[in-house]
Specification:
Layout lengths: L5 E10 L2 E11 L4 E5 L6 H9 L6 E6 L4 E4 L10 H11 L7 H14 L15 H13 L5 E5 L7 H17 L4 E5 L3 H7 L2 E6 L2 E7 H4 L2 H7 L1 H11 L1
Parallel strand pairs: 3-7, 3-8, 5-6, 6-7
Antiparallel strand pairs: 1-2, 1-4, 8-9
Bound molecules: adenosine-5'-triphosphate and magnesium ion (MG).
């Protein structure tokens, strides 16, 4: 068995008395592309936060192999600063990267160019459109040159053209370039099919199905593993 990049054993997470995750056990290896699916409030964002190291489990064991990682949040927070500063400051302030301000700006500009935002680098990030802000958030994550990337609903709030743009970007960043381990939450099952090699279905903080992508979308196979997951998929696609 390959060593796990991330592993959880019997992890619970309580948030303000709410059980956000219950007895979650899983391991993720380098190179996997894992989709987290489930209804609103099922625990997808909570699981991403634990995996990214932002929340310590209330109970259970979380282990990870150190690597460069980054996360795109469900509601990215923009600093009241230019688009360029939004990316460069994140890089510069992270002392583990040990970048000079000049290098941080150069790398930030490269990331902005990659997401098609070089032309608005001096614009206040708060005045960018929703699609542009999402691309900026992606640039901020990608500028860290992550080996492990967490994406929380990366296209949820976007209109169809912006959705296609951001999808294509993520595709080129994670699938076409050097392999990146990807863990993402999505309500878009088409996107899950396009990106994932494995799908984890959560319900009320519990993992009810954890299958290779092809098996997850095979109704008979999914029914055997988790009738609840099948109901969810059928509901989402009806
Ligand atoms: N900061 C918090 N304080 C208290 N409860 C929280 C907090 N964050 C999340 N929760 C609760 O934890 C549970 C899981 O929430 P989470 O945000 O992980 O779900 P989700 O699957 O990401 O949902 P969505 O699809 O709406 O993004 C929910 O019951 C939610 O209300
Ligand atoms: Mg969420």
């Amino acid at each position: 068995m390959k060593p796990a990049l991330l592993s959880l054993h019997q992890v619970d997470l309580n948030l303000g008395g709410v059980p956000a995750l219950s007895a979650v056990t899983l391991r993720i290896e380098a190179g996997e592309r894992v989709a987290l699916v489930g209804a609103n409030g099922s625990g997808k964002s909570s699981l991403l936060r634990v995996l990214h190291g932002l929340r310590a489990p209330t109970r259970g064991v979380f282990e990870r192999t150190p690597c460069r990682q980054a996360m795109l949040f469900q509601r990215p927070h923009m600093l009241r600063a230019t688009a360029l500063q939004n990316v460069a400051l994140g890089l510069w302030l992270d002392r583990t990267l040990a970048l000079s301000w000049r290098t941080a700006q150069t790398r930030a500009l490269q990331a902005l160019s990659q997401v098609g935002l070089a032309g608005v680098q001096q614009q206040n990030a708060a005045t960018l459109s929703g699609g542009q802000q999402q691309r900026l958030a992606l640039a901020r994550a990608w500028a860290r040159e992550p080996e492990l990337l967490f994406l929380d609903e990366p296209t949820a709030s976007l209109d169809p053209p912006a959705k296609r743009e951001v999808e294509a970007l993520v595709q080129s960043m994670t699938l076409d370039a050097k392999p990146v381990t990807l863990v993402f939450a999505s309500h878009n099952l088409g996107q899950v099919k396009r990106w994932a090699t494995r799908v984890i279905y959560l319900e009320q903080g519990q993992v009810l199905a954890d299958l290779p992508m092809v098996q997850f979308f095979d109704s008979e196979c999914l029914r055997q593993h988790s009738p609840q997951a099948l109901l969810f998929v059928q509901g989402e696609t009806s």
